[in-house]
Amino acid sequence: MSDNDKYLAVQVTDVWRWTDHLFSFRTRRPEGFRFQAGQFARLGLPHNKNEPPSIWRAYSIVSGPYDDFLEYYSIVVPDGAFTSRLADLKPGDTVFMERQNHGFLTLERFTLQGDLFLLASGTGLAPFLSLLADPLTWDSFDRIILIHSVRAKNELAYREQIEGLSRHALFAENSHKLTYLPTVTREPSEFLSMRIPQLIQTGELEQKSMAPLSKERSKFMLCGNPDMVQDTRTALKERGFVSARSSRPGEIATENYW
Ligand SMILES: Cc1cc2nc3c(=O)[nH]c(=O)nc-3n(C[C@H](O)[C@H](O)[C@H](O)COP(=O)(O)OP(=O)(O)OC[C@H]3O[C@@H](n4cnc5c(N)ncnc54)[C@H](O)[C@@H]3O)c2cc1C
Ligand SMILES: NC(=O)c1ccc[n+]([C@@H]2O[C@H](COP(=O)([O-])OP(=O)(O)OC[C@H]3O[C@@H](n4cnc5c(N)ncnc54)[C@H](OP(=O)(O)O)[C@@H]3O)[C@@H](O)[C@H]2O)c1
Hints:
By secondary structure, this protein is an alpha/beta fold. The chain is built from 7 helices and 11 strands. NADP nicotinamide-adenine-dinucleotide phosphate is lined by residues 21, 75, 77-78, 121-122, 149-151, 185-186, 195-197, 225, 227-228, 231.
């Protein structure tokens, strides 16, 4: 199946699993496909091999804007129309992607100074991995605080990669800026165990990150479960922060996954 004006056919090169319901995959990066760190693409799958794509879903791009591949991180929803098909993906298969990319979790949402808080639940980690793969993120902020909230410890995908940034050729010299705070909410672990809004309300976030929240310095990106996004936004509003809009500057940018 070939390209058309709206979409491209791209080849899957790697697929790997984190748990029975979480996996990642890479595709070739089409020549000339440009995006900003934090954006998402719309991916399409056909009903049957050799047919045009018939079902489309938004997927945050995990890889950085200078990587020569595109990477994605996906849930498998039981009986999900898209992910029950996507779960069978193998290297060599074709997926489709719209030529146009989108998204609000980009650096251009904020004045680039101070501390950047990246607050994710589940696969909502994806756009933040892309931001961490972009040198501009590291150059723009004094501190980057990444919280990844998951139900179970084995869902802390990409943990080794995040911890390994301190040895990364491009980012090692700035890696002191990053505080990575996994939080595991449904089983005992060595990590934090509170939901993100409670981490804000109790002061635990500031204590663990040693980054005091302030209107002048703090910027927040929220991504994943819409209830998490809503409750976190409420906790931030209680502290005086407001959403960034095209018509009005603010400190909060969000993306709901469903
Ligand atoms: C801007 C944007 C970016 C997205 N990026 C990603 C991404 O990078 N990775 C990813 O896995 N999904 C992402 N999603 C969700 C994705 O578009 C689909 O919803 C997901 O692939 C499930 O599709 P489905 O047809 O199997 O189930 P759907 O019919 O789309 O969803 C059924 C139900 O499954 C649950 N669900 C859907 N997506 C998720 C999820 N990611 N994690 C947990 N529960 C979920 C919700 O309860 C939802 O109501 C994104 C969504 C948006 C809007
Ligand atoms: N994780 C699984 O075992 C599993 C397996 C197969 C399918 N699924 C499906 O995947 C979907 C859930 O995806 P997910 O695993 O990413 O789980 P999720 O329910 O989105 O939970 C991810 C993290 O977000 C937190 N969270 C949820 N609601 C919140 C809120 N209002 N405020 C703050 N934090 C909140 C959770 O904390 P809490 O733990 O406190 O809720 C958890 O730490 C469901 O549709 C489910 O059926 C999940």
